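quick one before i forget lol
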Amino acid sequence: MNSLAQFIFILLLLNNFALPATGDIKMRIRLLAAQGLLLALLPLLMPAAGGDFLHALFFCLAIFGIKGLCLPWLLGRTLRRVIREPHISPRIGYNLSLLAGIPALIFSLWLETRLPVTPGFFPFLLFPAAFSTIFTGLVLIVGRMRAITQVIGYLVAENGIFLLGLPLLSAAGGFWFEILLLLDVLVAVFVMGIAIHHINDAFESIAVGRFCALKD
C-alpha cells in the first residue's frame, strides 16, 4: 500500500468529520461528490486491483461517473426542485455528531485488531476509514430530519461498505459484484428522488418529522 492511498484514507476520515458537522445541504452534496472522487482513485492504488489495469481503470471511471458526478447531480437537482424550508434542528446536534466520530474512530482501530482475518488483509487505515464512513452515514440517517439528508446518509454508508469490499477485488467475481452494487445504488437514488418529490408535493416539506402528524 503506497503513501498516496494512505493519504486518501486520511482525507476520507476528515470528510467523515465534516459531513455531520455542517448544516448546509449543498455543502453535504459537495462533500459526497468529493468522497466519490477519492473512492474512484483507490482501485488503481490497491494491490488487489493491480493485476488487471484495464479492469481497474474501467472501475475507476465507473465509480467517478456514478459516485462523483451522477449521484451528486441527482441530489442537487432534487434539492433545487423542493420547497425551501427554514432551518430544522437535527435530532443529534452538529457538535455532538462531530464529537461522536472520535470514539467511533478509536473503536474502529481497536476492532480491526480483533477481527478474525489474515494479517495485512486490510491495508493500513482502510478499515478505520470504512467503519467511520458507515458510522457517519448512520448518523446522517438517524440524526437528521430532512429526507434528502437521509438519502445522503444512505449513500455515505454505502461508500463505507464499498471500501470494505475493495480488498476482495482480486477474488473471482469481485469486480462484477462491485459494478452491480454501483448500479443498484444508482437505481435506489432514482427511486428516493421520486419519493422525495412526492413527499414535497404532499406535505410542502421534506422534513420526515411531519409524518408524525398523519392521522386516519
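fyi The mean pLDDT is 76.
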